[in-house]
Amino acid sequence: MKYFLSCLTLIFLFPALSQKSETTSYLQKIVTALSADSMEGRLTGSYGELKTAVFLSNELLKIGVKPYQDSYAKLFTYMYSPNPHDSTDAAKQQINSQNIVGFIDNHQQRTIVIGAHYDHIGRNEHNNSSLVNSTGQIHNGADDNASGVAAVLTLAKYLQSNKSLEPVNYLIVFFSGEEDGLVGSKALVEQLMSDSLGISAMVNLDMVGRLDSLNHLYIGGIGTCPKFGEIIQRVNYENFKIITDSSGIGPSDHTSFYLKNIPVLFLFTGTHIDYHKPSDDSEKINFDGLTKIQAYLIDLLKELSNSDELPFTATKNTSKAKPQYKVTLGIMPSYVTNEKGLQVDGVVDGKLAQKAGIQAGDVLTQLNDCTITDIYSYMDCLASFKAGEELRIKFIRNGNLKEAIVSVPEN
Predict the structure, then answer these.
(1) What's the distance, CA 27 to chain centroid?
(2) In the predicted model, what is the mean pLDDT of residues 392-406?
(3) Is 9 exposed, middle or buried (0-12, 13-18, 19+ CB in 10 A)?
(4) CA end-to-end span of the chain, whole Å?
(5) What is the 3-state secondary structure (H, E, C) of 341-372?
(6) For residue 215, is it left (φ>0), alpha (ψ between -120 and 50) or beta?
């Protein structure tokens, strides 16, 4: 009898294990392809980015997702200046790019957008690297954001092969131009507003490849619809420790949709020491974690799809997507709540934090007389300082309060 029950268990278990293994393999395939040196870091407007766009179009074609309208590529152009403070025409260049858009048409009145940006920072031609003197080195961007693209592609594969007819349509979007200021998503949302898609929600994945050992998953935008807070917890079968932010404004492409009064959700596993460095490579991706996030994404989409109404709610801007400060420390903050202050996940080479001896794992508590309780108070503290000032930094390391003093260089 025990032998029979064991065999019965294996009969039901093997399909699930096989499906999970197949999902993990596909995620690995996509992340590895997008973050290969041959893609040259996927800088917007570059040959490497164009190769990536062709690769994504071909993948959508393979899995049976048709293009939205007549082509997968939705073109856009913008002017890029290597020096944003230089207003001369000679300093600017026109960049031609494309978002890649597929459409799963279930012949419904409502549409949900699922997206991730596929561009990265190339060889640091646009000076977005967090590593000093890295111009010329390929920044492969495995986590940022080959991981998000892989999850969205895997979801599209699942939705296309699913035999049931969902009560919504799905727009599958891979944005470019995110690293230069969300320009691709801004262009696309303007194009979509003139169409009759009935967009009810947008889900954005950006840097979801570094799930930590405690299963922390950051989800932003939950305040943009009164149903979101309950939904994200109800489908948490993977037992993530979910950290939430209510704001619809954030440092990624969902912001462009929120600003058009569309409810948004933003999935993210946090910053790390390899952020915007050449070392953000595929071998550092937690593929088991990415598989869990992809499974969560499927359950989340099912719940959103079956919700008859997803009313939009405007939120207070707490995220401050692309702040400009006269003083920056050069840290990568943790999005995990720490009651003592702001935890540091990484330190940028050559910046003030490194000069002050700040290390990953330290918890910032004070800048001069300004108290730090979280990432938002940290931003507010930074905004009050000017170049040329002396900066006294208090932080906790291994339970001990420490202090460092650095001089902020003049611009």
Answers:
(1) 16
(2) 92
(3) exposed
(4) 78
(5) EEEEEEECCCCHHHHCCCCCCCEEEEECCEEC
(6) left
Dist CA 34 CA 26 (whole Å): 12
Domain 331-407: homologous superfamily in CATH: PDZ domain (2.30.42.10)
Q: How confident is the model at residue 385 (pLDDT cuts 50, 70, 90)?
A: confident
The full set of domain ranges for the chain reads 8-305, 331-407
One-letter identity of residue 375: I
Q: CB within 8 A of 214, min separation 6: which ones? A: 241, 336
Residue 379: its pLDDT value, please?
A: 76
Residue type, 327: V
Q: How far is CA 64 from CA 32, 105, 161, in A?
A: 22, 12, 8
What confidence tier does 92 reach under pLDDT thresholds 50, 70, 90? confident
Does the pLDDT value for residue 400 go beyond 70?
A: yes
As a dihedral over the C-alpha atoms of residue 276, residue 186, residue 38, residue 284, rounded to 10 degrees, the angle is 40
**130 burial via Cβ count (<10 Å: 0-12, 13-18, 19+):** buried
pLDDT bin (cut points 50, 70, 90) of residue 132 is confident
Cβ density class 137-162: b for 16+ within 10 Å, e for less: bbbbbbbbbbbbbbbbbbbbbbbbee
- For the domain spanning 8-305, the CATH number is 3.40.630.10
Instruction: Encode pLDDT of 224-268 as tens digits.
Output: 999 999 999 999 999 999 999 999 998 899 999 999 999 999 999
Q: What is the pTM of this model?
A: 0.81
Place of tokens 């990953």: 360
Beta strands in 132-213 (DSSP E): 169-175, 199-205
